[in-house]
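In response to the reviewer comment on reproducibility (Comment 2.3), we provide here a single inverse folding case reported in full, input and output, so that an independent group could reproduce the run without further information from us. The C-alpha cells appear first.
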C-alpha cells in the first residue's frame, strides 16, 4: 500500500501538467479533493503557465494565480479578451509587479487602451522572449511603449507602438507585423541580424524614397544572413520590386507572396514572377484552394502564392497551364495535390499539358465529406501515376461509396499497379478486396 501511496501523487502530477492552461481548469483540479489541492498549491510551476479571459471569475483569480507562482519561477501568460468591459485593464495591471519574470506574453483584446498600464508605461521586460499582441480594432489606439532586450519572437497585429527601437532588437528571430508601414522591413533588416522568419502584412503603400534606393543604401549583403522564411503581403508589384532590390542575391528556403486587391488575371503572373526566380525544377504542386498555391522545388524550397480577399483569386484551370508553359511544371512534377472539387477543371488542363514523368507521380486528393461532396465525372489520365493518397479522407458515412466512385475515374497504367493510401481512415474488408480486384495495391499501413 505504501508503494501505491507514493505512486498516486506522481500520477496526479502528470494529470496536472497535461491539463489545458485555462485558469478555470487549474482551479477545477485544485478543488477535487484535499490531496489534489495540496499538490496544486505546492507546485509553483503548475500556476506559472496560464490562459486567462475577461470573465468576472478570472478577474478575481488572476491575482491568486500569480501569488502561487512563488518568487523566481518564470511566467508564460496568455489572455484572450473578447468583450469590451473594464476588467481587462485591472487584470493586466496585476502583471506589472511580475514583468521581471515574464518570458511569454500573449494578449488578444478589443480595447488596447486596457493594456496601457502594462505595455504603455515604458517598462523593461528583462527576460521576455515571446511577445504577441493582437487587437481586433485599429482606431483610437494609444501608442504602447516597452523594452524587451532579449526578445526572440515578436508578433504585433493592429497595435501601434510609440517606439519600435525598443523592440526591434538584435536577438529577434521570428517577426510578424500586421498593419505596419511596409518600410518597417528596412528597419528589421537593419536591426535584427538573427531574424530567421519575417512576416509583413500591410495596406500601406511604399512612401518616401524609392524601393530600389532604400535597399541600395545597405552597404553589405546578404541583408539578413539567417533568414529562411519571408512572407510579404504588400500592394501589387511592390512584391517584385522588394524581392529584386533586397533579395536578388539569395534564394530563400521559404517564400510567401500575397496579392491584396490585385486583378484576377494578373495575380498568378505577378506572384510567380516575384517568387520563382532562382528556384530549381518544381516537383510538388499543391492547389490548396482558389486563393492559395504551394510549390516545392527539387531542393526542398517552398513557394506559397496567396491571394488575400475575394477580389483576388486564381483561375483553377489556368494555374497548371501557366506554370507548365512558363516553368515546365508538367515535365518535373512528382506530386500533385488537389481538392476533389477542382477535379473536372484540372482533368481538362492535364489533357492539354499532361504530366510527363514516366513513373513516380503521386496524386494526393483532399475530400471534405458530406457537406460539400460533389462527385466528379471526368476520367483522370496520368500515365506516370505511381501512387494515390487520400490525405483528408471523406466523411465515414459516404467514404466507401465515394472512394470507389472517385477511384473508378482514374485510368490506371496498363504496365503496373498503382499504390493506394487511405490515410487514417479504416475501410471495410469488402472494399479492400474490391480494390485489389481492380488492380490497386493497398499500402502496408492501410492493409493492416
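Designed residues, in position order:
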Amino acid at each position: 500500500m505504501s508503494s501505491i501511496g507514493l505512486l498516486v501523487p506522481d500520477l496526479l502530477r502528470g494529470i496536472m501538467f497535461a491539463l489545458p492552461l485555462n485558469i478555470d481548469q487549474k482551479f477545477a483540479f485544485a478543488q477535487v479533493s484535499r490531496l489534489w489541492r495540496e499538490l496544486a498549491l505546492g507546485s509553483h510551476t503548475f500556476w506559472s503557465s496560464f490562459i486567462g479571459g475577461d470573465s468576472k471569475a478570472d478577474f478575481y483569480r488572476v491575482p491568486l494565480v500569480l501569488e502561487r507562482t512563488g518568487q523566481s519561477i518564470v511566467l508564460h501568460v496568455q489572455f484572450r479578451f473578447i468583450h469590451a468591459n473594464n476588467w481587462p485593464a485591472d487584470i493586466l495591471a496585476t502583471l506589472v509587479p511580475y514583468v521581471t519574470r515574464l518570458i511569454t506574453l500573449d494578449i488578444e483584446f478589443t480595447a488596447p487602451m486596457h493594456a496601457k498600464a502594462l505595455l504603455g508605461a515604458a517598462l523593461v521586460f528583462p527576460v521576455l522572449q515571446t511577445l504577441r499582441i493582437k487587437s481586433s480594432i485599429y482606431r483610437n489606439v494609444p501608442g504602447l511603449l516597452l523594452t524587451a532586450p532579449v526578445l526572440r519572437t515578436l508578433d504585433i497585429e493592429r497595435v501601434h507602438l510609440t517606439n519600435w527601437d525598443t523592440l526591434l532588437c538584435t536577438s529577434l528571430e521570428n517577426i510578424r507585423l500586421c498593419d505596419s508601414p511596409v518600410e518597417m522591413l528596412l528597419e528589421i533588416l537593419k536591426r535584427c541580424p538573427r531574424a530567421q522568419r519575417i512576416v509583413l502584412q500591410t495596406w500601406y503603400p511604399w512612401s518616401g524614397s524609392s524601393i530600389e534606393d532604400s535597399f541600395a543604401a545597405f552597404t553589405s549583403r546578404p541583408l539578413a544572413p539567417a533568414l529562411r522564411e519571408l512572407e510579404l503581403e504588400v500592394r501589387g508589384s511592390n512584391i517584385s520590386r522588394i524581392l529584386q532590390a533586397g533579395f536578388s542575391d539569395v534564394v530563400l528556403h521559404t517564400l510567401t507572396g500575397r496579392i491584396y486587391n490585385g486583378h484576377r488575371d494578373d495575380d498568378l503572373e505577378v506572384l510567380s514572377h516575384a517568387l520563382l526566380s532562382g528556384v530549381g525544377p518544381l516537383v510538388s504542386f499543391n492547389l490548396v484552394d482558389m486563393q492559395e498555391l504551394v510549390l516545392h522545388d527539387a531542393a526542398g524550397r517552398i513557394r506559397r502564392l496567396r491571394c488575400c480577399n475575394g477580389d483576388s483569386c486564381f483561375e483553377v484551370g489556368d494555374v497548371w497551364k501557366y506554370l507548365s508553359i512558363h516553368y515546365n511544371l508538367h515535365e518535373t512534377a512528382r506530386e500533385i495535390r488537389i481538392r476533389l472539387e477542382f477535379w473536372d477543371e484540372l482533368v481538362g488542363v492535364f489533357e492539354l499539358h499532361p504530366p510527363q514523368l514516366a513513373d513516380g507521380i503521386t496524386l494526393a486528393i483532399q475530400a471534405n465529406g458530406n457537406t460539400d461532396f460533389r462527385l466528379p465525372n471526368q476520367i483522370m489520365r496520368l500515365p506516370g501515376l505511381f501512387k494515390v493518397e487520400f490525405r483528408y479522407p471523406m466523411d465515414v458515412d459516404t467514404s466507401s461509396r465515394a472512394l470507389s466512385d472517385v477511384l473508378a475515374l482514374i485510368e490506371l497504367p496498363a504496365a503496373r499497379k498503382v499504390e493506394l493510401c487511405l490515410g487514417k481512415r479504416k475501410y471495410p474488408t469488402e472494399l479492400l478486396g474490391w480494390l485489389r480486384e481492380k488492380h490497386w495495391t493497398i499500402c502496408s499501413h492501410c492493409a493492416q
